[in-house]
Design goal:
The structure is a single chain. The protein is α+β, with helices and mostly antiparallel strands and about 475 residues long. The chain is built from 16 helices and 19 strands. It has helices spanning about 35-40, 45-50, 110-115, 115-125, 140-150, 155-160, 165-170, 185-190, 215-225, 240-255, 275-310, 390-395, 410-415, 420-425, 435-440, 450-460; strands spanning about 5-10, 10-15, 25-30, 60-70, 75-80, 85-90, 100-110, 205-215, 230-235, 270-275, 320-325, 325-335, 340-350, 350, 370-375, 380-385, 400, 430-435, 465-475. Strands 7, 8, 9, 11, 15, 16, 18 and 19 form an 8-stranded mixed β-sheet that branches. It binds guanosine-5'-monophosphate and manganese (II) ion (MN) (2 copies). The site of one manganese (II) ion (MN) has 4 residues, from loops.
Length: about 475
């Protein structure tokens, strides 16, 4: 496969449409040559080529440098299909619908809170339930749950879980309008009704970081970030509810594909025409799950603020930088072959990265481009970047979403003991609050790619601009 890859730039590679008969568009890979060698060790590029065969796909099937193998679609992938007749595919969004990250900013330097770090970690750990299938203290009646599914962050703020400005600083204002609670089956609702405000396990976390480097002071100013500042990074999604929505609709689409005459090279690419009944039902259920995820990050924000105040006093504040989704599909307008076209953009392990001037960015950040929040791992840096106009042209306004796994969970566990990982981190001054040592082994920093390399690729390729680097000080995990 490597010999069939054309080098477009040191950071971008292309597999032509002619590589396989069934491709509808080329495949594009953002990576350095070194990274490419690693990427080719798993099935992710083969999966990307499979994606390029989807009915209605536009321009190119794209992966970011954090790419790795996923369910049907590679993680780190972007695929846009023509609205309204192109397909929508649950595998192109992922099981954790609207998994995403949110960054909160303290109004003070980390040095001011350093001596309270362990208390803060303990308070957050006890306030934000974590672990697989864990429920929390917010239990929603079916009517309230429907409201959450319909209105997302807005309902949360109206019910005391945050501020109006949190909504403005959330992608899509924390609410996809097409959400339909009736498209979400009972089983999914049952799994979700008591999970609001819970983190889940493994890769999900709440983390206290220090801003340890500013790369672009103008944009950092616009974002309200400064060197030495304490910030809180939150990563989670739609919990059991979103997972069940994905499960239910993948099953439905697997059996409806035949009816629509859709053939895909891998069953996991199950999909339906966007304008079909199945396509619409899934899109509306996915939006409801996305709203649930935003409500969840809003509930966690509220609980983190409570913990923060309980340790640091009533007038300590955590304000929002931004909240981005990295597993979602959205209807957007993009320029394709010189024309503006409406497309269904699937981002699976990819972050929206709209550039300066885009009307969908909150007015506060519109001039500089939207914040793009990239977690690295519990032992390395994480980054804040800004969207650019290059991303609008090259990647449907998208960038990477993390460092990306380079080791499977089972391999990571074979290599390291959780207790070792814990010790190493503590020795480096990084505190950890976790319910599971095995989880820590799976999440060892070495299980992920080098986030500095990944971020350098997107920044050198121009699809996002480096603004600030964060260093973990306290990691709270499931
Ligand atoms: P995903 O959504 O693919 O599970 O995770 C997104 C990214 O989060 C991963 O690719 C990884 O780089 C990053 N990540 C996983 N665990 C942690 C953590 O504990 N802290 C930070 N800062 N990043 C993490
Ligand atoms: Mn997730
Ligand atoms: Mn995620």
């Amino acid at each position: 496969l490597k010999k069939d890859m054309k080098r477009i730039s040191p950071f971008l590679w292309k597999v032509d449409k002619g590589y396989r008969d069934d491709m509808n568009v080329p495949a594009m890979i953002f990576a350095t040559e070194n990274m490419l060698d690693d990427v080719l060790k798993d099935r992710s590029i083969e999966q990307l080529i499979n994606v390029s065969t989807l009915p209605g796909i536009q321009k190119a099937a794209i992966v970011m440098p954090d790419v790795h193998e996923g369910y049907g679609f590679p993680i780190g992938g972007v695929a846009a299909t023509l609205w309204p007749s192109g397909v929508i595919s649950p595998g192109g969004i992922g099981y954790d619908i609207n998994c995403g990250v949110r960054l909160l900013k303290a109004d003070c330097e980390f040095s001011k809170i350093r001596r309270h770090i362990e208390l803060l970690g303990a308070a957050i750990y006890s306030n934000v339930p974590s672990g697989v299938g864990k429920s929390g203290d917010i239990v929603l009646s079916s009517k309230k749950l429907d409201n959450v599914l319909k209105h997302g962050s807005k309902w949360m703020v109206e019910n005391g879980y945050g501020y109006e400005e949190d909504i403005e600083r959330t992608e899509s204002s924390g609410c996809l309008k097409n959400a339909d609670p009736d498209a979400v089956f009972e089983k999914a609702k049952k799994r979700g009704h008591d999970q609001l405000g819970t983190m889940g396990a493994g890769n999900h976390f709440v983390e206290i970081d220090i801003v340890d480097e500013i790369f672009d002071s103008e944009i950092a100013n616009a974002y309200g970030l400064f060197k030495g500042q304490a910030v809180v990074l939150i990563h989670t999604g739609s919990r059991g509810l979103g997972h069940q929505v994905a499960t239910d609709y993948i099953k439905i689409m697997m059996s409806s594909m035949k009816k629509y005459g859709i053939e895909v090279p891998d069953r996991e690419l199950a999909c339906a025409p966007f304008d079909s009944n199945e396509g619409q039902q899934y899109f509306n259920a996915m939006a409801a799950a996305a709203n649930f995820a935003w409500a969840n990050r809003q509930a966690i924000t509220h609980k983190v603020r409570q913990a923060w105040e309980s340790v640091l006093g009533k007038d300590s504040r955590l304000s929002m930088l931004y909240d981005v989704a990295h597993n979602i599909a959205k209807i957007e307008e993009h320029e394709i072959e010189g024309q503006k076209r409406k497309v269904i953009v699937h981002r699976k392990g990819a972050t929206r990265a709209f550039g300066p001037g885009h009307p969908d960015i909150t007015s506060q950040y519109r001039e500089v481009g939207q914040p793009v929040i990239i977690p690295g791992s519990m032992g390395t840096a994480s980054y804040v970047l800004a969207g650019t106009n290059v991303s609008m042209q090259m990647s449907f306004g998208s960038s990477c979403h993390g460092a990306g796994r380079q080791m499977s969970r089972s391999e990571a566990k074979r290599r390291r003991q959780g207790s070792d990982v814990l010790m190493e981190l503590e020795n480096r001054g990084i505190h950890v609050q976790s319910g599971s040592l095995r989880g820590l082994a799976e999440e060892a920093p070495g299980a992920y790619k080098d986030v500095d390399d990944v971020v350098n690729v997107v920044s050198m390729a121009g699809i996002a601009k480096k603004v600030a680097r964060l260093k973990p000080m306290m990691v709270i995990k499931g």
